[in-house]
């Protein structure tokens, strides 16, 4: 699951046009530490997940849900919907768009 969460975080970061340097600065960590999060090499605690979600304009539960659902992180079609609206509404809309 760490790897899937990292993929979602990376996709969201790229969607917003944020660099790893920017994300590391916002989180108060080194660029290497942040890169390890994206690659699923570290366990993230709840606090860190909430920090990431805030920077990426998501809810922590959305990051977890999208990681569990396994959305294609190479395609950003689901991200605009994820960033706006509620989680329940987004699941229906995102699933419709992907299918």
Automatic annotation (TrEMBL):
Keyword annotations for this protein, in alphabetical order, are:
DNA-binding
**Listed GO molecular functions?**
DNA binding
Ranges for domain HTH cro/C1-type come to 9-63
Cross-referenced InterPro entries, in alphabetical order?
Answer: Cro/C1-type_HTH (IPR001387), Lambda_DNA-bd_dom_sf (IPR010982)
SUPFAM superfamilies with a match to the protein in the record: lambda repressor-like DNA-binding domains
Q: Which PANTHER family match?
A: DNA-BIDING PHAGE PROTEIN, TRACRIPTIONAL REGULATORY PROTEIN-RELATED-RELATED
Q: What is this protein called?
A: Helix-turn-helix transcriptional regulator
Q: Which organism is it from?
A: Pedobacter endophyticus
